Amino acid sequence: MSYSSWYAVAEGGLEPLQRSLIDIEAETKHQRSYNPDIIPGLVQTLAYARAILTKCSAVLELPDDSEATAGVRLQRQAVLDSPGHLFHLLIGEAALRRTVGSHAVMVTQIRQLADILTARDNVEIGIIPLDAEFLAPADNFVIHDTSGVDIEAVTGSIETTGEDEVALALRTFDLLASQAVYGEHAHALLDRALAEHVGPGI
What we know:
about 200 residues, alpha/beta, Endonuclease, Chain A, seven-stranded mixed β-sheet, 8 helices, about 50% helix, about 20% strand
């Protein structure tokens, strides 16, 4: 198990850290991820990514390279078209309701999610309703095949390849996935969130 401070891996900005994920994701054949509060990077729009990364740079007091870093984040999305890659993304409903950037940014982001949910056979998106029962503690985490887990904490990233830790992450992911809704039920939650963001004046 290893811990890397955000300051250690992003001293000059966030772009190198973002770029390092391209090879990791290219080598992963089955990626599972859980994001309770934000949309996963692999399915973000450019405007959403830029808004997220601007805030990350600000809180870390780093040079704002959000434009370049957002571009790299979109480069990562090429892996979605790579043969033999499967993605199972769990997203908390709170991520749909939270305003990132602006309501207009959220409208475009939610519509893109709806398109991906319908059009991509290799990407499974599950949305965990706000009123789902608490089953297990979990922060943002990504499971790479069955070999490793990356966990995002407030101060840095935790990476583990320990057999027990990977098994725990898989078990937790399965519990969370059992609460998620898919298909037309996921579309219903997307439509509800979309209506809320359109309402303020889009």
